[in-house]
Amino acid sequence: MVDGLSNANVAENKLMVLLNYVNLMYDIIFQYGVRGQSKSGPQNQLVLKPDLIEQPEPIVFAFDIECTKMPLKFSTAASEQIMMISYMIDTQGYLIINREIISQDIDDFEYTPKKEYPGHFHVFNESNEFELLKRFFNHIIDVKPHILVTYNGDSFDMPFVEQRAQFYGLNMFNEIGFRKDSQDCYLSRPCIHMDCIKWVKRDSYLPVGSHGLKAVTKAKLRYNPIEIDPEDMCRLAVEQPQTLSNYSVSDAVATYYLYMKYVHTFIFALGTIIPMRPDEVLRKG
Q1: Rounded to an integer, what distance in angstroms lies between the CA atom of residue 224 and that of residue 114?
Q2: What is the pLDDT of residue 86?
């Protein structure tokens, strides 16, 4: 066990060295200009470009969904509904409630697991799943995020939302511009989709059994997230809706800050030296 921890620490140190190197290369290539050899001056000079010091500040939209489920079965979009959608937009949190499933209205509340990870949530109590989806799509259109962040979104959240929208005659591509490509990735031309589990599997150096969001939160964000047995979720929607709301937003908080602390800088730095879209750098680079 000690050897395992030691190897993990060594791997994490190597990753930090790589990140520092990539960041240094970014500084040199993009913040400085290189002057070549001339007869009247030194051979090579690094000249600061003051107009390129600051990084861009994209609008980041991280979301997670909670769904109904039958006992001892996985949620399927063909027969289940979305109970809640929680999301964060540049540290501001939002929660959309499906009141057909949740037994009472939820007031605005705060979920801040650590002071460096604040989460103040404004709640929309919608009458049914259709109104929940319309609220979600409309908010994306209003905000126009540059980056959409999920955790395992390619495999679960995005296809589930797409299929539930189809049930009500809504086309997710027409609504927000996202659709599945030939490799089962949900991509859009005007907005990047960053599925954090891709980074976890390839670049986090966490063991295979620790790729769930809760385990990653403990290892990388260093706090214990709220955990609920999936078999209790539908019961809590009726008996303890506030408890379920806290659980829902905890996933959005973890997804957002995991992305901002680790994935964003890593992919942004790699994107300066790999000639690919950020989506492709994350999944293929």
Answers
A1: 10
A2: 99
